[in-house]
Design a protein that fits this description.
Layout (H helix, E strand, L loop, with lengths): L14 H28 L1 H4 L2 E2 L2 E2 H44 L1
Helix pairs in contact: 1-3
Length: 100
């Protein structure tokens, strides 16, 4: 079965930028998650306190999940824009050099 030629994936010149953004977002999430762990470790009664009918552990836990989803959407938006700008700009420069 023949599927046709493979697509040409050129080098992603935005990869270093995307890596830095991902690392910074991971560090931010890790700090907030460490806060959750520290509260559970050193003051577990605090996690039982009520916040709008739910305890802090539930609110904090769902907050972590929602925050992770928000970070994923922000990462996608930032990295998509960077790919278009960096890769597109460099491709345009290469096209101009070839035309000259």
């Amino acid at each position: 079965m023949h599927h046709g030629p493979a697509t040409d994936w050129s080098k992603d010149k935005a990869a270093p930028f995307k890596t830095r953004v991902g690392i910074w977002m991971f560090v931010l999430y890790a700090v907030i998650y460490i806060g959750f762990i520290l509260i559970n470790t050193f003051n577990p009664k605090l996690m039982g306190s009520d916040i709008g009918g739910l305890n802090l552990a539930t609110v904090y836990g769902f907050g972590l999940i929602i925050f992770a989803l928000m970070l994923a959407f922000v990462y996608n938006a930032i990295c998509s824009a960077a790919e278009e700008e960096i890769n597109g700009r460099l491709d345009d420069e290469a096209d101009e050099e070839e035309a000259a």
